[in-house]
Please model this.
Amino acid sequence: MKKHLNLFILLFLLIAVFVPKYSVAQEKMQDVIYYKSGTILHGEIIEIKLNESITLKSNCGDIWVINQSDIERVAKEPISKTFIQKDSTFNLSYKRKGFYSNINVGFLFGSNLNTPFPPLSLMFVNGYQFDCGLALGAGLGLELLTEAYMPAVLDVRYTFKSSKVSHFVYLQGGYAISLESPDPYDYDYYSYYDSNLKSKGGYLINPGIGFKLNLNNRNAFSFAIGYKYMQVQHTYNEFNGQEIDRTIKYNRITLGFGYHFW
Model:
């Protein structure tokens, strides 16, 4: 347990030191059309008919033909700029397009280990969020199961509504790299005569749902619940020298607390 804790602290410190800063000197620009009604569209103007209409291709790929009489103004703005606007019900709407980071600390429930606390999980994800609510990212983490593993995952998530409290769904999938050799005394099915026990790691999948509390334009906290399935491979030698492969399956309920920043 002490070894696991040291690994957890080490990874957390590495993340804290090497968190990327998204301060780009020259950002890409986008066209922004402000309606007189309060609606805002972001994308690229592809056609202008003088005194008639403007055609905009939105950041999600939709084509909008807008009467110039409905337009209040047209502007050029950074493509990663955060927009906080009022929707038709006068609630603040938090909209973000651009790069983001997410640090998540979680607990893995369902273990049969006799420990006072559920195993810890740490995940750090970098990604890019589109205007339409879809976000794609990649991450590295640490799973303190019976052994310590470092999952490398792809992260896909979708936010349903851009508001003070935003609900989302997510799916992570990837490969868990083993960081230490298994201890045969942690398992019931390894005997005294088995030797050279090793873990090869294995694949994982983690779907879930949650909500995000937006503090301001650039910071948010989140809570999520999900299901994690991880399958790893052990190899060992029996007393007669024969090498045996064994599949270890983990089924866990995950509770995660995250911090998001742009």
